[in-house]
Amino acid sequence: MEKYVLGVDTAWSKNNPSGIILLKWTHNSKPELVRAGRSYDEFCNNGRPIWGNRVEGSMPIFSKIIECCRRKIDLIALDIPLSPQGITGRREADDAISREYGNRKVSAHSPSRNRSGILAEIIFNQLTENGFSWANEYIKTPAFIEVYPHVAIIELFDCKERFQYKVRKTTNYWPNISLNERLNNIISNLNILRNKIASVVSGIEEILPQLNSNGSYTINCLKGYEDLLDAVLSAMVGCNYLDNKAIPKPLGDQTGAIWVPKN
Q1: Which of 128, 132, 183, 238 has its CA at a distance of 20 to 30 angstroms from the CA of residue 192?
Q2: Residue 131 backbone dihedrals phi, psi, to 5 degrees
Q3: Residue 260, Cβ neighbours under 10 Å: how many?
Q4: Radius of gyration of the chain (CA)
Q5: d(CA 31, CA 29)
Q6: In angstroms, rounded to a whole number, what is the distance separating the alpha carbons of residues 231 and 226?
Q7: Number of structural domains, the chain?
Q8: For residue 238, what are the domain limits?
Q9: pLDDT over 80 at 263, yes or no
């Protein structure tokens, strides 16, 4: 039976674009990438990235996003702190992730009311108004869950520690080399992650072509590429949820739960 999963790399500010993709999931088959956009508008208007165009941030309107999919959406997996009680600060879910993965250089960010609590509350309310239930344990779909792509990479691809692919962190990763060398390194790592994803998700080639190692890319272009990879990773955790191969951290906590894939 086919099911559909939305993965959203949710920017913590409406001023920044959010990557979003739609996967088709069938038990014991590769998920298939159906639709994608580097922003909510690109997802709804084009259904695939137009790499020559710059994308802008906007407030999400999930009724419009769901409608443009033209399919029944079973699960929405979002990379943003979510809580029915609202986000005002650090939660047990953030601490649980940091305890388990901190020694692998993956700790959860500390949210606040302004970043990203207000936006998270708007998204939470929109999704519940559209018939989706928040899941801090396994529940029937339609549902929505919180995920964390850095942890997903570790669990899905057996990485030993945080994978270095964030476009705006190149100076932190490689402080002692030139800008061109840092860009070459980040392009290489984006391709590595893209190829890992393409080995387990079909349809990647049409949406996310491999980057040219000698190509000249703007930071905004590479950031959009990164955002789409994060959106696919988010949806992959959603597919694990549908396959009963994910665990909430912590189980049943009413202040928040971050779902982690387990194979």
Answers
A1: 238
A2: 90, 10
A3: 22
A4: 17
A5: 6
A6: 9
A7: 1
A8: 3-261
A9: no
